[in-house]
Amino acid sequence: MMIENQAIEAAGYEIMKKAAIDIPEDYLQGIKGMIDVESGDLSTFVLQSMVENWEAASEDRRPMCADTGLPRYYVKLGDKARFGGGFTGIERALRSATARATQDVPLRPNRVHPLWRTEHNNNVGINAPEIEWSFEPEADWIDVTTVHKGGLFGSDYRMLFPGDGIDGIKRFLLDTLIAFGKRGLACQPAIVGIGIGGSKDTCMVLGKQAACLRVVGDRNPDPKIAALEQELKELGNNIGMGAMGFVGSSMVVDCHIEVGYTHTGGMPVSVHTFCLSSRRATARLMADGSVTYRTDPLWFTPYMRRETVEWPSQDTSLNRSA
């Protein structure tokens, strides 16, 4: 059965609403767990206020934050998925969904031309919204994920040398989190994504995906990287800063690391913080015409993390109904 563009647009529109209004359960539980252990009075107050804000937003069906960020999409296509209109049809459907959701939810129209500051009042423009593509073998569905991430601050990059090692990564993370907290460049606590390796642009992409497309409690399948994720999370929560930069211990809800093979002479590292709203939602469009919704993008599959030239035909964790 063909997955039609109208269904893709309808799903894109629906996840735009869900991402803007409904806080993901994994992140909500992570914040509530931080309230239980936070000792700073102001940090505790901020965390409690955010939970109350999320509850009010859900009840009133309004965006949980006045700044609805920069909506973007991540599309994962199954090899066996059949869809009408081609790839450009999917792009048009998602651009249309963005424009309609901007008016209806409503989302703040944040997208402007970088030089002339002109805009179309719909979050659509040149290279906007961004759409990133991924593929999955042996699957006949399409996953569409939207992420509403702030587009001003909350990211940094540094080219390290192999000799800097793990200690260099720790130093860069601490420098970044302290700067973010002191200068108000991020909304803490946040899911922190770290990209290590790849080319410079790939490094930035990996870090943002690690922050936005993995849920609280998820660990990298490499046990050494998983241990480093936990260590860096604890490190970030022991610099004396809590929610929104106040004194406390609630800086990092979770830390996720993604890696890519890189040039032998360097070790690029990027750090990204997903904002306090952690806005994401996913729709899976099945070959039979049904659509299911979830908040775990399930983006990083074994296929995406493959190291070799060949990929054996096998079932993956994604080849099931979400």
TrEMBL record:
User: Which residue ranges does the record assign to the Fe-S hydro-lyase tartrate dehydratase alpha-type catalytic domain?
Assistant: 13-283
Q: Which UniProt keywords apply?
A: 4Fe-4S, Iron, Iron-sulfur, Lyase, Metal-binding
Which residues are in coiled coils? none
Origin: domain of life: Bacteria
Q: Name one GO molecular function term.
A: 4 iron, 4 sulfur cluster binding
Which PANTHER family does this chain map to?
FUMARATE HYDRATASE-RELATED, L(+)-TARTRATE DEHYDRATASE SUBUNIT ALPHA-RELATED
Q: Which family does it belong to?
A: Belongs to the class-I fumarase family.
Q: What is this protein called?
A: Fumarate hydratase
- What is the organism field in this record? Pelagibius litoralis
